[in-house]
Write a structure and sequence with these properties.
Helices cover 44% and strands 13% of the residues. By secondary structure, the chain is α/β, with parallel strands linked by helices. It has two domains: 244 residues, Aldolase class I (TIM Barrel, Alpha-Beta Barrel), CATH 3.20.20; 77 residues, Four Helix Bundle (Hemerythrin (Met), subunit A). Strands 1-2-4-5-6-8-10-11 form an eight-stranded parallel beta barrel. Strands 7-9 form a two-stranded parallel sheet. α4 links the parallel β4 and β5. The model has no long low-confidence stretch (mean pLDDT 94).
């Protein structure tokens, strides 16, 4: 039986460190109501020994939103998953795909693909602790292990622990010698591996991820798998998602906001956040939110002038969100 949240994950935005924070997610939610959003990876240590509100606070407008956890100790993951559920997240996702050295030192992320039995234990512990879905995001292999059988057996073992949703980044993770950025670009994409997983495990929800940039590509992948997760394209070209609610979620009443309306919708949120967290050097800065909006005009005449206006350090320092309106006006005048 597929996950209870099955159609909701038809399209999602990947967890991306330093990018998909709560401000980014609120911005994305102005463009698409139904696309599934994911947090940056949060380690169990950060939750169990750190500032929980700072890591878990989010705006109710973000739903549906998933918390991605990084860790490898079943008990710690269970406690962290419980915290996520208590804070209102709709899903807990375990990171089994990040190849960074920091993650490797903690013996989690992509390293866990070599320990499918441990991942199964982690999943079971989290499922025992929460009533919401527990999912896994992973690669198709690590280092020179490139056979389809490797990822098939990994998914099979973890599925036996009750995981029903697997998000497949269709590249190997190279643990030594490549940076995280290079790991997103150099290992060859093998979409067919995700397709085969969907055929071999029809009872599971298989979501594909990796360098997917257009609606034509999304449409093609959806002929083979249950869902598509967008990565950096959703960040650099967020307005791509404007018709997703109608196109992929069957929301016949969905009327996409114009880019100008997206900006207008963000202004109250920005003012509220600045008022809550302050405008001085110790509080929230305007750029913490507006930096996520630089790609809103991608592909439009005058987009460069919009980005330049939105990057004006002197205006940003003033902390006045009217900068967004002025940037839009400048773009429009440049394009006229």
């Amino acid at each position: 039986m597929k996950s209870s949240n099955y159609k909701k994950r038809r399209i999602s935005v990947a967890p991306m460190m330093d990018w998909t924070d709560r401000h980014c997610r609120v911005f994305h939610r102005q463009i698409t109501h139904h696309t599934w959003l994911y947090t940056e990876m949060v380690t169990t240590g950060a939750l169990l020994h750190g500032d929980v509100p700072r890591h878990l606070n989010f705006d109710k407008v973000e739903h549906p939103v998933a918390l991605q956890l990084g860790g490898s100790e079943p008990a710690d993951l269970a406690k962290s998953a419980k915290l996520g559920e208590e804070w209102g997240y709709d899903e807990i996702n375990l990171n089994c795909g990040c190849p960074s050295e920091r993650v490797q030192k903690g013996a989690f992320g992509a390293c866990l693909m070599a320990e499918s039995a441990l991942v199964a234990d982690c999943v079971k512990a989290m499922r025992d602790a929460v009533s919401i879905d527990v999912t896994v995001k992973h690669r198709i292999g690590i280092d020179k292990t490139e056979s389809y059988e490797f990822v098939r057996d990994f998914v099979g073992t973890v599925a036996e622990a009750g995981c029903q949703t697997f998000i497949v980044h269709a590249r190997n993770a190279i643990l030594k010698g490549l940076s995280p950025k290079e790991n997103r670009e150099i290992p060859p994409l093998k979409y067919e591996y995700a397709y085969r997983l969907a055929r071999d495990f029809p009872e599971l929800e298989i979501i594909i991820n990796g360098a997917i940039k257009t609606t034509a590509e999304i449409d093609a992948h959806l002929q083979h798998v249950d869902g598509v997760m967008l990565g950096r394209e959703a960040y650099h070209n967020p307005y791509l998602m404007a018709d997703f609610d109608a196109r992929y979620f069957g929301d016949a009443d969905a009327v996409p906001k114009t880019r100008a309306e997206v900006i207008e919708a963000m202004l109250p949120y920005i003012r509220e956040q600045l008022a809550l967290y302050g405008r001085d050097g110790n509080g929230l800065r305007l750029n913490s939110i507006t930096r996520h909006m630089l790609g809103l005009m991608a592909g439009m005449p005058g987009a460069k002038s919009f980005r330049q206006a939105l990057s004006d350090s002197k205006r940003l320092a003033l902390g006045d969100p009217i900068l967004l309106v002025d940037a839009l006006s400048k773009m429009q005048s440049m394009a006229a």
